[in-house]
Every structure is written in C-alpha cells, then in structure tokens.
C-alpha cells in the first residue's frame, strides 16, 4: 500500500486513475467520482494534476475496508473512452494474455 | 505416504478457525490491511494483479490421491478450475476470494493439507527429491528428515520472524533433483566411513537479485544432530541477518559478507553453546517419524513383462516411455513423470479435471500416491511396468503424456506479469511460444536435454539463473525486454548462467532462443554432448556472435 509519505512524492504525467483490489474478493476496481469503487474502468474518476491525484489516492487509501493496495495508474483517453496506460494495467483490466488449458 | 497424528490434525484445524476469525474481522473493518497482511501471509495469501493468490504447501512433494482430489475441489469450487504447481512443490490458486478462503482451507484441512508458512519471513515448505523413497541408489528416504524438520520448524516461535524467508531442500541421491545448491540450506544425505547416516550441509544458496551457489559448511553432520545444527545456523542468521534492507536480508548475503569460514565458526560456537542435547534426535524419535510413512506392498514382478514387450512396437508409446519413465528401486516397477508442459500450455498448470483424473490413475496404478517436482511436473512413483501401456493411453487422453520431460519444451516458468504484482514482464506467453516453436518431438529429441527457465522479474521464481538457457524479463521505458543467460544448471554441479548480451524485445525472444539452439546443434562435438556441456567447453562467445551478429 502506498504510504502517506510516498503519496507526497506523487507526480503524474498525464490522465490517471486510482485502482486497487476489492477487499472481499480481490477483484480489480477503480475509484469513482462518487467515492466508491467500480469494476469498470469506464466509471473511474480521472485526475489530471498531481494535487488531484494525491487527493484521490488519499481518499481511496482511507477506504481500507472497501479495497486494498490503492495506487495511481496512468490511462489514455481515446475517443471519450478510458484505456489502460501500460501493459500491467491492460492485463489488470482485460485479464491474462495467455491461452489457458481447456477446462 | 506420511500419516498425520492427532497433534498435526488439531494444529491444522485450529489454524483454520483462527484464520476464519481473522478474515471475519478484516472484512468487518476491525483489522486494517496493514494489521491483516502479516496474518494472511502466514496462511499463504498474497495479493496479486487480479485477485488474491493462495499458495498451498505440498510437503516434500508427496500427495495422496485423496489430497489431490481436495486440491481439485478447491480449484473447482473456489477458483477458476485450475491450479499452478510451483518450483517449490506448492500449488497456487490465482483467483481465490478472501471471503471464501477459510472454507477452502477447511476443506484442505480435512485431508491434512494447509498453507502455513508458504509465505512470510519464516521457514518455508521443506522440499525434497520428487523421486524420494523410490529412486535406485538412494541412501535412504530423505522425506523422513524433511518431515522431522517440518515438525520442528512449523510455528517455531524463534523462526517465525526471521530477517527473511528461509528455504531448505534435501536430497539423498547422487543426482540432485531437489536443487539443494540454490537453497538457504541444502542437505545432502549420505553415509560416513562407519556407515552412519548424516548430511553434507550447504548454506547460503539462493537466486533473486544477488544469486549465490550454496557452500559446504560441514561435510558430515550425523543424522541425530541435524536438528541442532540447522537450529544453530538459524540462530546465527537470526542474530546477524540484516533487517534494515530487504534486498540484503537473506542468509546468502550474511554468508557472503562474513565469508563461509567465519560464518561456520559462528555456527560451531553456537552449536557448542547449545550443548545440542535437547535437540539430539534419539533413535526412537527418528523411527517414530519413519514409522508414520507407509510404503506400498510391492508385488514380485518380472523386469520385462509381456505387456511392455508388445507395446514397444508402438513408436509413440516407446517415445513416451523412453522420455517419461524412469527406473524404480523395485524390480518390475517404474517412476512415471506426467508432463504439465503441453505444447501451447502454461507450464505447471493443471485443471481440476486433470487433477481428479490423475488421482484416479494414482489409485489404479500407483498405490494412491502422486509426487510434485520442482520442475513443475507431477509423477506417479510406483507404477508396475505391465501397466505402463494402459497408463500411457489414459495420460494421453488427458493431455499429460507430452514426451518432453527434460527437453527444450519442459520449461520452468513463473506466473510473470499475467498474474504477479512483482513482475516486470510476462513469462508464460514466452514459454507457450517456445513450446510451439519446438513442438516437433523429433526435433526436441535430437536437441536432447535442455532446460529453459523463465522469470518475469529479478526475484527469479522461474530460476532463470540456473537454466541451461535462462530468460529474465525486465522493463525498459514501459516495454518488455528479456535478458538471456546460458550455461546455468541446478543439479549437483549447479552454477549460474552467463549473460550473452543486451536484452532483446518480447517479439524477438523465441527467435533468439532458436538461434541459440541452432548454434548449439552446429557446435556440439557429438549428439550426446548436452547443450550445457557445449557451453562449458566453448563459452558464451559463439552463441553471442550467432545471436547478435544480425541484430
């Protein structure tokens, strides 16, 4: 979990969201503008400044029962849609990139 | 098989109740994540990319069919229908829900399985040779000693908060299948000149960002003294191991910084002070543990039964037999390795249906016993040779008879960036692509023994340093790149591989590995010269030249 000390160092270079894992089942979730969590990236609150990112993260970390391991992740805004900003976030958003064994 | 006594069963059940209460309090907000984290880690629960990951111990890699069915049930009921066998004889579930974990643990406890000490800074699962107790020429069954160490170190208060995690592996065969030289403590069971059983004790091995091959600290410690001697090592580590820097906290760093001679002196002084009387194992204590292991009632069978002679006419069967069937210490029996490395499959994964089917086959052909090896394959340790043809047909239908054991597609790979929150790059898709490139079994037979190990980060869960070819995923400016090493090995002649040059991008890894293999085929002085021996003879330069000349 990002500590308050580390939060002070946060600098973002573009549109970002706060993501975490839901406490009861570990599902990937994103912080919404309504101060809740959603499993849809499309519902994530977007921040564009470092101050806003720090504030959103602080609010998210405070909700320790709802989700764990909150951190700021980059996103890309394309045609009004929110896309993950790197491979790691793409995998968290879309799932594994591998062929699983047939069930 | 080892039969748990009442004490073991009580311990496991109490642990489940305790964890159920801890989870309940966490979900109710009575425990913060910071407070809960150490508790979940003590029960094998990590938080990964998509979900919690649940790691279950398979002590010394031995499972009963009943236990394997329980693992299948957990995969089916609480996860997504599959599990991943790891390089330390554990199984991991990738999609477990915290709220359901206590129920999963309770189901496992019913068959004597738990997740204690599969994570956290304590003594991890004591691993051993997956052929323990059945390998020809073995000194004696090393699992007796693994079990003694397991019992002594489980929930041992002095070893529950070590500077860092601590791993022990034991082998009793000349050929080391347990990779003891890359463990914090490696134990090689052997006999002294008087015929007494004891151990060569190695210490300070490990991979990760600072890899070391373990060094011999004592060539022979009598079996009766092994607990006290291991405890003396742990005490020295507990006292002097660094707690200020996670990257320097493993015992390998302490051994390296002190030097093996000084470290050994510290251990000897500690050992002497302990007087080692309380921990000296008397004969009856050892025999008590030994008596709880049951062994099959083998039949007297011919060395070459008719069924096997007839089946030899089938080239597909013969290919599999030559690759996956190993000699057994009892005439008429074999050890059968079940490859969990199908072409295009994730290395080490097994579906719940496969696990159930293997449990059934174990009941039918292997006295109900299954083994898990650090190479991420399974084994049936007691198969009558007359049953091999039928077993092969059954395994083939299940996708578990790929004849690639120890060959180029028998790849060891960590979960990588597809699952792991520590990873920088993906491992599994690289492995899958390589298995497709080398899918032709004639080609892989011609290449011969070749171990490829892939890790998605420097933590080295895929043991890339000791792969004949090691592949390490790194991240450069947001892109996946891979460093390639060659010449590593994890056996009795363990050594680290040597980096051949700059990292290559994701899309080029399979091409580079093909180039390396082609170079080997051109350079080896005879078909029997293994890849790793060609590298030893010629060094990395010819391979480096082949890979980078056109890149």
Fold blueprint:
The complex is a heterodimer of chains A (103) and B (551).
Chain A: H1 4-8, E1 16-22, E2 28-31, E3 37-38, H2 50-62, E4 67-78, E5 81-84, H3 87-94
Antiparallel strand pairs in A: 1-2, 1-4, 2-3, 4-5
Chain B: H1 6-27, H2 33-41, E1 45-47, E2 52-57, E3 62-64, H3 65-78, E4 82-85, E5 90-96, H4 101-109, E6 127-128, H5 143-153, E7 168-171, E8 185-191, E9 197-203, E10 215-222, H6 226-240, H7 251-258, H8 260-274, H9 283-291, H10 306-311, H11 315-324, E11 325-327, E12 333-338, E13 349-351, H12 352-365, E14 369-372, E15 378-384, H13 388-398, E16 412-413, H14 428-437, H15 441-447, E17 452-455, E18 469-476, E19 479-486, E20 498-499, E21 504-505, H16 509-523, H17 531-538, H18 541-548
Parallel strand pairs in B: 6-7, 7-8, 16-17, 17-18
Antiparallel strand pairs in B: 1-2, 2-5, 3-14, 4-5, 4-13, 8-9, 9-10, 11-12, 12-15, 14-15, 18-19, 19-20, 19-21
Helix pairs in contact in B: 1-2, 1-4, 3-4, 3-12, 6-8, 7-8, 12-13, 14-16, 16-18
Give a description of the structure.
The complex is a heterodimer of chains A (103) and B (551). Chain A is of the alpha+beta class and 103 residues long. Helices cover 25% and strands 28% of the residues of chain A. Chain A has helices at 4-8, 50-62, 87-94, and strands spanning 16-22, 28-31, 37-38, 67-78, 81-84. Chain A has a five-stranded antiparallel beta sheet. In chain A, strand 1 and strand 2 (28-31) form a beta hairpin. Chain A is globular and about 45 Å long. In chain A, 31% of the residues are buried. Chain B is α+β, with helices and mostly antiparallel strands. Chain B has four domains: 6-109, Sulfite Reductase Hemoprotein, domain 2 (Alpha-Beta Complex), CATH 3.90.480; 142-291, Sulfite Reductase Hemoprotein, domain 1 (2-Layer Sandwich); 306-398, Sulfite Reductase Hemoprotein, domain 2; 412-548, Sulfite Reductase Hemoprotein, domain 1, CATH 3.30.413. Chain B has 18 helices and 21 strands. Chain B has helices spanning 6-27, 33-41, 65-78, 101-109, 143-153, 226-240, 251-258, 260-274, 283-291, 306-311, 315-324, 352-365, 388-398, 428-437, 441-447, 509-523, 531-538, 541-548, and strands at 45-47, 52-57, 62-64, 82-85, 90-96, 127-128, 168-171, 185-191, 197-203, 215-222, 325-327, 333-338, 349-351, 369-372, 378-384, 412-413, 452-455, 469-476, 479-486, 498-499, 504-505. In chain B, the strands form four sheets. In chain B, strands 16, 17, 18, 19, 20 and 21 form a six-stranded mixed beta sheet that branches. A five-stranded antiparallel beta sheet of chain B has the order 1-2-5-4-13. A five-stranded antiparallel beta sheet of chain B has the order 3-14-15-12-11. In chain B, helix 3 (65-78) packs antiparallel against helix 12 (352-365). The chains are: A alpha+beta (103), B alpha+beta (551).
């Amino acid at each position: 979990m990002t500590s308050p000390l580390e939060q002070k160092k946060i600098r973002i270079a573009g549109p970002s969201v706060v993501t975490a894992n839901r406490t009861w089942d570990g599902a990937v979730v994103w912080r919404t503008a309504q101060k809740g969590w959603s499993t849809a990236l499309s519902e994530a609150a977007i921040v564009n400044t470092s101050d806003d990112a720090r504030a959103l993260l602080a609010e998210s970390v405070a909700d320790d029962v709802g989700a764990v391991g909150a951190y700021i992740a980059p996103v890309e805004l394309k045609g009004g849609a929110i896309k993950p900003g790197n491979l790691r976030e793409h995998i968290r958003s879309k799932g594994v990139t591998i062929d699983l064994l047939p069930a | 098989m080892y039969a748990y006594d009442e004490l073991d069963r009580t311990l496991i059940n109490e642990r489940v109740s305790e964890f159920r209460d801890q989870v309940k309090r966490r979900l109710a907000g009575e425990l913060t994540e910071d407070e809960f984290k150490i508790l979940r880690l003590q029960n094998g629960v990590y938080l990964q990319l998509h979900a919690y990951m649940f790691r279950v111990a398979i002590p010394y890699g031995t499972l009963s069919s009943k236990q394997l069915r329980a693992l299948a049930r957990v995969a089916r009921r609480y996860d997504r229908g599959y599990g991943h066998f790891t390089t330390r004889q554990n199984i991991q579930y990738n999609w477990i829900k915290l709220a359901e974990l206590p129920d999963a643990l309770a189901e496992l406890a019913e068959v004597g399985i738990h997740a204690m000490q599969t994570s956290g800074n304590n003594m991890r699962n004591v691993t051993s040779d997956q052929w323990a107790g059945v390998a020809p020429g073995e000194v004696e069954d090393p699992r007796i000693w693994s079990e003694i160490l397991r019992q002594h170190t489980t929930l041992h208060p002095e070893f529950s908060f070590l500077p860092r995690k601590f791993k022990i592996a034991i082998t009793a065969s000349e050929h080391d299948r347990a990779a003891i030289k890359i463990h914090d403590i490696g134990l090689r069971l052997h006999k002294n000149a008087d015929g007494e059983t004891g151990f060569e004790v190695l210490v300070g091995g490990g991979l990760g960002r600072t890899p070391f091959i373990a060094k011999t600290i004592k060539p022979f410690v009598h079996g009766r003294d092994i607990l006290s001697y291991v405890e003396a090592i742990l005490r020295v580590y507990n006292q002097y191991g660094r707690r200020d820097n996670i990257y320097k906290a493993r015992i390998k760093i302490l051994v390296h910084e002190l030097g093996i001679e000084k470290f050994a002196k510290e251990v000897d002084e500690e050992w002497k002070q302990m007087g080692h009387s309380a921990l000296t194992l008397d004969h009856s204590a050892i025999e008590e543990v030994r008596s709880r292991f049951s062994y099959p009632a083998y039949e007297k069978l011919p060395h070459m039964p008719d069924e096997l002679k007839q089946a030899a006419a089938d080239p597909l069967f013969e290919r599999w037999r030559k690759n996956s069937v190993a000699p057994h210490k009892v005439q008429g029996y074999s050890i059968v390795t079940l490859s969990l490395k199908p072409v295009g499959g994730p290395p080490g994964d097994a579906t719940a249906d496969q696990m159930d089917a293997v449990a059934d086959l174990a009941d039918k052909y292997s006295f109900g016993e299954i083994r898990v090896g650090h190479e991420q394959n399974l084994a049936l340790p007691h198969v009558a040779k007359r049953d091999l043809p039928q077993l092969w047909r059954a395994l083939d239908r299940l996708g578990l008879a790929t004849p690639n054991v120890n060959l180029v597609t028998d790849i060891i790979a960590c979960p990588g960036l597809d699952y792991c929150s520590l990873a920088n790059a993906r491992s599994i898709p690289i492995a899958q692509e390589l298995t497709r490139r080398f899918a032709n079994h004639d080609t892989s037979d011609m290449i011969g023994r070749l171990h490829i190990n892939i890790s998605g980060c420097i933590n080295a869960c895929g043991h890339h340093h000791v792969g004949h070819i090691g592949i390490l995923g790194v991240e450069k400016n947001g892109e996946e790149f891979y460093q390639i090493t060659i010449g590593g090995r994890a056996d009795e002649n363990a050594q680290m591989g040597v980096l051949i040059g700059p990292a290559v991008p994701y899309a080029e890894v399979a091409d580079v590995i093909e180039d390396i293999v082609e170079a080997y085929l051109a350079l080896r002085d005879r078909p029997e010269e293994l890849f790793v021996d060609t590298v030893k003879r010629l060094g990395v330069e010819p391979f480096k030249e082949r890979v980078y000349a056109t890149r």
